[in-house]
Amino acid sequence: MLLSSFVAPVSLLDAQVPKPGPTIKVYKTVGGVKLTAHVFWPDGAGQVARRPAIILLHGGGWTDGDPEWCYDNAKRYAGLGLVAIAGEYRLSDRKTTTPLEAMADVRDLVRWVRDNASELGVDSHRVAVDGISAGGHLAAAAAVFAHPEESKTSAVPDALILLSPAVAIAGDPWPRLLLGSRSDVKAISPADNIEKPLPPVLMMEGTRDTETPLAGAQRFCDRVIQVGGTCEIHLFPGVGHLLTRNLDPRAQEEGPFDPSPEAVQTAHAEEAAFLLRIGFLQRP
């Protein structure tokens, strides 16, 4: 199973596009490996003391991917006025590194953003996470699985935006293979472990997604609401994983992806409207 990145072929909003290229900062060093945060600041960032931030997590089945996969979306969010941060996390090698390590990295990245809010020009109480596919699992996991013993700084995002997210993976053989004997898959499946209200959630799902099927996304959203949170799920008829028009199951797993321009435009509009509703954006 390869839960890949989503690269938007079109831009919906007439947002001001910031200068290309991020500032790359090391947020964590583990086992001699430096993990980086790729920061895109909006134009005029110094004119506002603290801006909302959004962390972007690529897909790739926990085994592949790179922060650069999120650059287009990061630029789009920065164009809306957010500090956008494409995050790196450890990729599973089916030996010593598993999704557990990636989950820990994402928690540390959220904490790093909050701990360095002044330097980054970020409002530490408005830190969202945008996760795609396997990155959606990591984003949701940061909200569902609390690890207060790691740091006094919270790793729970203030909002979640999830596209084709792997949030219900209890029966999935791929993460089971990656985890080996380290953990039971159900123990890291967000949909199976929601016990308290989560931050606001926006989910977007193709009705013909064979990689992260709609039933799992709906179960996650229903559970969020059941425990007192808010979750909006927007369905895109006739498209599959990552809003692709290529519905072949193997293509939905490995590509090539053919995102529907109309679905992508709608998804971007839903994201902006969601951020406006929760106070991350201001009306013009």
Give your account of this protein's structure.
This protein is an alpha/beta fold. It has one domain: Rossmann fold (3-Layer(aba) Sandwich). 30% of the residues lie in helices and 20% in strands. The chain has an eight-stranded mixed β-sheet, with helices on both faces. Helix 2 crosses helix 4. Residues 1-18 have low confidence and may be disordered.
How would you concisely characterize the structure shown here?
By secondary structure, the chain is of the alpha/beta class. 30% of the residues lie in helices and 20% in strands.
* Secondary structure category: alpha/beta
- Using only C-alpha atoms, the radius of gyration works out to 17 Å
User: How many structural domains does the protein architecture include?
Assistant: 1
> What is the helix tally?
8
Q: How many E-type strands?
A: 8
Q: List the uncertain runs.
A: 1-18
- Reported by name, the CATH topology is Rossmann fold
User: What is the name of the CATH superfamily?
Assistant: Alpha/Beta hydrolase fold, catalytic domain
Strand content: 15-25%
The ordered H/E elements are EEEHEHHEHEHEHEHH
Q: Determine the N-to-C terminus distance.
A: 42 Å
Name the CATH architecture.
3-Layer(aba) Sandwich
Task: Please describe the structure with a list of short key phrases separated by commas or semicolons.
disordered N terminus, globular, alpha/beta, 30% helix, Rossmann fold, single chain
